Amino acid sequence: MNTQKLIFSSSQRGFASVLIVLLVGLALGGSVLGTAYYLKSSQKSLVASHALTNAQSGAWTGVEVLRQYLNNLDGATILSLNDNSLKLKIQDGRELNVNHIAATQTSTSPEVYQVSAQVQNLSTRSEASSTIQIVYEIRPDATSTPGEDNPGGSTSFPEAMNFYGDLTAQGGIHLSNGDSERAVINVAGNFTANSISGIKTLNVIGDVNINGAGIQGLENIYTNGNVNLNGSGSVKLISAKGKVTTGGSWSADDIYADQDVTIDSSSTFKTIDTKASLLVSGNSNITTATVGQKITVNNGSIQKALANSDIKYNVWNALNSAKSGGNFTCVGESWDNFSSLSAVNFTKCKQPSSKIESLSAGTKVAFPTGAIATVTMTGKPLVNAHVYEQQANYVFDVDSQNRIVVYVRHVEGIEDGQYFLAKNGNLWGALCRTVESSSNKKETDPTCTSESVTNLQHKNLTWFKKIISYASGTWSLEDYQKEITSIAPGVILFKGNINIPQGKYSNTIIATGNINYGGSVTLDAPNYAGANTTCLANYFKMPTNLCRSKVELIPASIGNIALLSGSCSNSSSLEACEANYLGGNITLGGSATIQGNIIAGNKLITGGSTNIKGSILAAAHTSDKQSSLGGSTNIDFDGKDQDDTTIIIPGGDGDDEEAPSSGSSEKAKIRWARYI
């Protein structure tokens, strides 16, 4: 028995070890499989996280692009976004979806708008998407009044031309080599022209009257008044709160109006939308007409007509479909050149017909939009030359003895203070502290009795010509040559009127009165002239408020100004300033050449061929405020970005030495955001 037991025990020897090994193997296999599954899950999670991160980054890019888009809209355009969708184009040709837009006005004084939207980025490469719900607050007039974003109360004008009175352009306006976003004319009064090229958008508060055939590149007309187009030309969009009348061979993609539209031209129109009536007399083809009142067609054709009142189709031409909330009058009972007619009543139409449908009285069939925008301009700027005295390097005036005195500021090596403009030996144009009058009756200019601190005229010229002179309230800058800079570069301010018949200048020229600028003159504003001319000018002292060094400019906005005119003694309010306004007119002679922005306190008048590289502002501070561009006026932005061409009218004392040259503020701000 004992032997058998020992044999049985020996036969089972090693089974426990095998079992243990098997269990350990199973555990190890499970661990390996678990580790592999974990690694695969982690990889998927990392890929998904990376994809989501890219999608979210793209969505936030869309949030900023949308904010910048809202930053440039006026109130009416903001409200027009309500219940619409947008597609945002970003880098690499990608598009982002903006859905569920809700736009409301939350305040009228000041204007404040709130826009909420969902910005979605779909990434096909990473198979991921991200959607951000965002709420913006927009203040369209943020730059026109002082506030937390704009403590100086300055106003900026980034567009090409801004006129606060009427504008007549009989000789033509041409914008060449320009950024299309800056190819804009803003007019607070009426606009009349016979030749335009290169202008993208007209924003006019009054009426628009365009005649002639020289209309090229005009895309948009927005007006609070009437639009009258004659001659020939084309435009993509017209929005008018008044009437629209076309004659000749004008055409437009879309016309939106609050009042009557009259088409008397041989052209093609895609959309005509008016809250009033439509009259078609010209041989034009209209794709769709949506009219709040009646339609009368005496010539031409309409593919689709919708009118809440009567429709009179007095031509035998084809008509695809029409709906009238009143009576539809056919050209004759034999006319059958249509697909479908719907109206409350029919006159002279072939009946019965399967293509004719009777509507119930009072049926409304048209829902016109009318004008799609209201033109607004920022609060009228107050242009006062006296504001710039603290920034001027040389301020010219006369004392009680009719001697020319110059107050010098911000000039290297010259102590700020008052100096006389006098003769130093045989040299004209010297600045010195003390002078004595000549005993020679033929000699009217004083002579320096103290050391001269500088000479304002180039030494090669001062032997022969007195460039700066004064008589009876009017200054004169006149130099017979145009090869070298005539006077010291920098900001110069003249108290009175100034005539500039000829010469070469690298200055900001400011006058408290009017400026008459001749044809044989070349003027470059300091920032346009560059550091080599403004800061490193031979013989002349460096203006320290415009130059950091001999080779580097300070981007002060005043250095972008070429000409500025007009002043008032009481600038406590716009009304007080305009009650005693002096000057403000700038007149440019034929073949005038200017690089820099032009600011007229009242109006601008050009003649002949005028070439301007910069922007224009005419503030219309007097009753005689109609600007006129004659001959041809060429605005050229080639090589100049918006920092150079944006006009800034400062508040306070006008000292903007440290201000950014763009002068812009953000009107649209993000108030709330979340992922959804």
TrEMBL record:
- What are the boundaries of the region Disordered? 625-670
Q: What does the record give as the organism's lineage? A: Bacteria, Pseudomonadati, Pseudomonadota, Gammaproteobacteria, Moraxellales
Official protein name in the record? DUF342 domain-containing protein
Q: Which organism is it from?
A: Acinetobacter wuhouensis
Give start-end positions of Polar residues composition bias.
625-635
